[in-house]
Amino acid sequence: MSGGLYVENLSKAYGGLAVSRDISLTLVPGARAALIGPNGAGKTTFINLVTGLVAPSAGRIRIGERDVTRTSAAARVRLGLARTFQMSRLFAGMAAREHLGLAILQRQGRARRLFGRLRHMAPVQAEIGRLLAQFGIAEIGDRKAESLAYGERRLLEIAIALALEPKILLLDEPAAGVPQSETWRILAALETLPDDLAVLIVEHDMDLVFRFARRIIVLAEGRVIFSGTPADAAADAAVREAYLGSYAHVRGRA
C-alpha cells in the first residue's frame, strides 16, 4: 500500500442522522476519479472527513501506510493531501502572486517570511511564474483576488493547491460558478497535473466529469451506490435514476 489514499468503511452521524455510511474508496497514485451525486448526498462531508475538518464516527483513513484517521488537517497537508473548496477562500486584497508565494513558503516551513520579502526570493518567484504559466493565468499575477473573474479564481485555487506539492489532490466543485463557455479552461488545467498525482474531483458539470475521470463514484444518501468506468456509469440504470438522468441518454446516442 505505497502512496495513495485509502478510505475504509467511513461513516459519520450527527445524533441519529447518518450523513456518510460505510464508504470505502481507494485513490492510487495517478488516479483520475470523480465523486458525483445529487445535492445532499454527502459529497462535501466526505471530503471534509478525508481532509480532517470533520471527525468520523467510524472507519479509517490512510495516506500510504500512515493511519491519519485522528490526525489534524494541517498534518494531513504535510503528508501530501491538498484540497480546494466549493466556495472561494482567497484573500480579497492579496495578489495572485502573493497567494502562490504563501503556499510555496508554507510548504517550505517559511510562511512567516512572506510579506515584504517575497519579491526578493528568486527561486520562489521562478516557481510562481511556472505555476501561473502552467494554468494559463500569467497575466493575473499582480492582480488582487477581488478583481479576478470566477474562472480565474478557480484556476488560481488549483495552482495554490499544486504549490503544496501534494500526492493526493481533492477538488470540491472546481467548475462551480464558472460560465459553461469557460469550463474548458478548468479541464485544460486538470490535464496539466502531474501524472503520478492522485486526483478526485467533486463536480456537477457532467461534461467535465466524463472528459476528466477514468473512474466515477456515485454517492446517494451518504452511501456509495456505484464505482466504475464512465461508460459503465452511463449505462447503469440505478445511476441514471439517481443522478445522471438525461445526460446518460445523450451520451448513449453520441
How would you concisely characterize the structure shown here?
The chain has helices spanning 43-51, 73-78, 96-107, 122-134, 150-163, 183-190, 206-212, 230-235, 237-244, 246-253; strands at residues 5-14, 17-27, 32-36, 58-63, 66-67, 81-84, 168-172, 198-202, 215-220, 223-228.
Record the SSE blueprint.
Elements: E1 5-14, E2 17-27, E3 32-36, H1 43-51, E4 58-63, E5 66-67, H2 73-78, E6 81-84, H3 96-107, H4 122-134, H5 150-163, E7 168-172, H6 183-190, E8 198-202, H7 206-212, E9 215-220, E10 223-228, H8 230-235, H9 237-244, H10 246-253
Parallel strand pairs: 3-8, 3-9, 6-7, 7-8
Antiparallel strand pairs: 1-2, 1-4, 4-5, 9-10
Helix pairs in contact: 3-4, 3-5, 4-5, 5-6
The average pLDDT value, as a whole number, equals 89
* Total of domains: 1
As laid out across the biggest beta sheet, the strand order is 6-7-8-3-9-10
What would the CATH topology be? Rossmann fold
Sheet with most strands: 6 strands, mixed
CATH architecture: 3-Layer(aba) Sandwich
Question: What is the succession of H and E elements?
Answer: EEEHEEHEHHHEHEHEEHHH
- What portion of residues is helical? 25-40%
The number of distinct helices, counting runs of at least 4 residues, comes to: 10
**Strand runs, count:** 10
Separation of the first and last Cα atoms: 39 Å
Strand percentage: 15-25%
Poorly predicted ranges: none
* Bulk shape: globular
CATH class: Alpha Beta
Q: State Rg.
A: 19 Å
Specify the structural class.
Answer: alpha/beta
Q: Give the name of the CATH superfamily.
A: P-loop containing nucleotide triphosphate hydrolases
